[in-house]
Write a structure and sequence with these properties.
With about 120 residues, this protein is of the alpha/beta class. About 45% of the residues lie in helices and about 20% in strands. The termini are far apart.
Length: about 120
Amino acid sequence: MKAALVVSHGSRSKKTRQEVLRLVKKLRRQSSFPIIEYAFLEIEPPDIPTGIEMCARKGAKEILLLLNFLNSGRHVDIDIPKIAQEARKKYRGIRIHISQPVGQHPKICELFLDLLDRSKIHL
């Protein structure tokens, strides 16, 4: 069974947490993945190891860490891969993958163009 774990940075802002929860609810409704959970790298629970454990308990045999990060950096390039490697050792029967950050998606330019179109700035 496949699972997606939406991984965000974490924030002290309640608004940020609510935005992540809304995203996860939409993904659950529109995705064919049977398991979709969320986790945060730092600041608030659940942390990434706990999120992976939640997916494993629900029967996941393959987990995609779906990065809710715009670009590469220390967290994307070092911290999250390290956490994933630790989880691979703990859950040997589960394949764990990491997505690219959102900013590397081929449609990111289209997203920014849409934001420009929606802006209140008129040329």
